[in-house]
## 1
Amino acid sequence: MKRITIALLALLLAAVGMLAGCGKKDASKIRIGEVTRSIFYAPQYVALSQGFFKDEGLDVDLQTTAGGDKTMTAILSGTVDIGLVGSETSIYVYQQGADDPVINFAQLTQTDGTFLVARKPDQNFNWDSLKGITFLGQRKGGMPQMAGEFTLKKHGIDPHKDMNLIQNIEFANIPSAFASGTGDYVQLFEPQASVFEKAGTGHVIASFGKESGHLPYTVYMAKQSYLKKHKDVVQKFTNAIQRAQKWVDTKSVEEVANAVIPYFNKVDKDIVVSVVKRYKEQGSFATDPIIDEQEWNNLQDIMDSAGELKARAPYDKLVDNHFAEKAKADVK
């Protein structure tokens, strides 16, 4: 009788466990590859630190896949599910005639994120002063370099004739190259630009983001086949991003800095605050994930100016806004 009672109790406990398990929903695993680790992507880190992905039932594995070419390789090979990278990379893949094109579905930043850094302060900076100097630029064909060249041309400077343009240094090594003495001016992302300012190594004198206008600079993208197969996961992901974008837009610089600083533990708090302030003031953070056609065309104008566009890439072929539009409508 005692054995029967114990057996019944064991069965009852097992049944309770099964019922409890039925009430739990396993989080959907999603692998994200970011092109670099930058405060420029503050809404993404806010979505992580404030639990917005978790609220959507997502378990996000964030990897830094340094460089646009490496990020796109990770997307195409299936190493990551979604990439955060410049939209130009999806156009390059499309130009090669991909059977499974990479589709842009949610915009995170809407301006270039780089700054012109000089070795000395220049309160009366004039773009003409760049003629004849050595300029340490970004990787050829990448959006930072193309936005930089677009800005220089707008101010009457031919970067390949009017200056000594260096663009053969690996993305991750550009700051250290400048710090060691290479170049008179350099094009840098944050927080490196502010770190250099604090150390006296360099001084921000202009913003390429302000100069080159709005464009889908950094966008979440995935293979078309992934979007079709995982619509529910992608929608939840986009919802979390929209929620984070609204949060960043309405919160103070200090609050945003506090939310993202766990992802920049080697950067001083005052630097993080300075960078967030700089990006908020110039409107770099998109306030919703929708990729506008006008911005898409501006992107291609910049690519065309740099000689990197074989033919115009159709907006309706490489942009899918329905996840973003639903997120904007539903997220309050």
## 2
Amino acid sequence: MTETPESKNIASEETQRDWKRDWMGYRPEIKVLDCTVRDGGLMNDHYFSDDVVRSVYQACVEAGIDYMELGYKASKKLFSPDEYGTWKFCSEDDIRRIVGENESGLKLSVMADAERTDYHNDILPKEQSVLDMVRVATYIHQIPSAVDIIKDAADKGYETTCNIMAISTAQESQIRNALDVLANTPVGTIYVVDSFGSLYLEQIREFTLMYLEYAKDTGKEVGIHTHNNQQLAYANTIEALILGANRLDGSMAGLGRGAGNCPMELLLGFLHNPKFKVRPILRCIRDYIEPLKDQLNWGFAIPYMITGQFNQHPRAAMKFMDGEDNKDVVAFFDSIIVED
């Protein structure tokens, strides 16, 4: 059959319709995780009141969100309970004080940092816990330790993810080696993580397609976790979603470390799943999250933009913004150039 300009146009239109169905329609594979308490806890050493955590939990239940991340399972040998709040450790008693037996459809998760979690003792068998999922956070050089935690959690009956941090600073060969290892573990989801809020859409596209390549034929999902240093957290999340990432992180009003995360209220507003409700999120933001603004300095700000543009950890920006001379962004910019 001879291809005519008309047939080319028809094919193009059909391709566009298929593409639109992929991302504009209801996609039941998509699962949303709220990381407000966990990532936000990095701004206050995890000292959230029970009222705040309970309100986030209730909002997640009412909004139809799939997972809520409560905090970390940090080793008390490395982190003193005298210096950190309840949600740095997420004991079963503390979690149950908030959620009881969690008789809702919301699944609960915690994060376990590679080499910073006493997982053999602090992560109980699933039948003894109200938790559903363990998310393992790791840098490239810690992958062997991360694999041990993944295997332990899976053997105990939990869903698992692996969040490879700071991939913007790693070589492609290192990332591919890590993905090759993870593809042969029981991990359920592998997350693209923009730790420093430095990645642009083109880079998110490349990473997401790379991760999907390794997840293909393994039954694993790909997730996306972004930071808002360059006001791209939401856009980057949507880009990964369109390409096929089915596990999406967000937080209420973007509350998270430094510039914060993809705002949950934006993400739910974009998705076309009728089970998601934005109003409970807005109520929680109004009553509990926005009042925290006076004490927690999160959200887009020029110092966070600068560290994002220079692909650096936001700790320098956080220190600058907490200091007395926190208005001279030119001086901060110059200091980052010297360090870079």
## 3
Amino acid sequence: MANGAPSIRQQLGFTARGWLMSAALGWLGFVGAMLMPSLPWPVMVVSFLLTNVALLVLIFGLRCPRCRARLSQVGLMAALMPARVGAQPLCHGCKVNLDSPA
């Protein structure tokens, strides 16, 4: 990596971890609203929607920053197992190495 620039895989991991955290917080809000009836019902609806949107972005929304090809599996691998190089070293769209600087 030249000049300490993050790689494509690191950028995908950072983005995926953010959406994964949003999904987890949404799920906790949803469960909390179910267990505590004193919370207003919009809290449950908003947290349910946040969870679903975050999971859909994780599945369909992660894209290569160079060619915009969908990279959901690579992004999830980068987020959940950043130390592992991964089974897919190249973007399937532009064939750029995912460990190269973005």
